[in-house]
Amino acid sequence: MAKTPRPVHSDPDILGGTPVFVGTRVPVRILFEHLAAGDSVDAFLDAFPSVRREQAVAVLELAEDLVTDRARSSG
Question: What pLDDT digit, counting tens, does each position of 64-74 carry?
């Protein structure tokens, strides 16, 4: 099984190290801000065409895994 490339990275030379989608200057937090405001993933992708759908989905899956793992370890 092929390993999926990381969808996010942080580089001190890009936006001062703010986590961004790989290959872009789009901060990951912008995806969550759009979702919190009630926008769809499609609306986010329309607004930031340099982000690929696979990257956005991968970030949401990572967030789900982190929340689920944290809930299990604290419960």
Answer: 988 987 777 77
Taking a C-beta distance cutoff of 8 angstroms, is the pair 55, 22 a contact?
yes
Question: What pTM value is reported for the model?
Answer: 0.85
Question: What is the residue type of 3?
Answer: K
Give Cα 27 to chain centroid, integer Å: 8
Could you give the angle at which helices 53-74 and 28-36 cross, rounded to 10 degrees? 80
> What's the token pair of residue 18?
């703010």
Distance CA 39, CA 17 (A): 26
Task: Give the tokens for residue 72.
Answer: 């299990």
Strand partners, 27: 20
Query: Is the Cβ–Cβ distance between 43 and 33 less than 8 Å?
Result: no
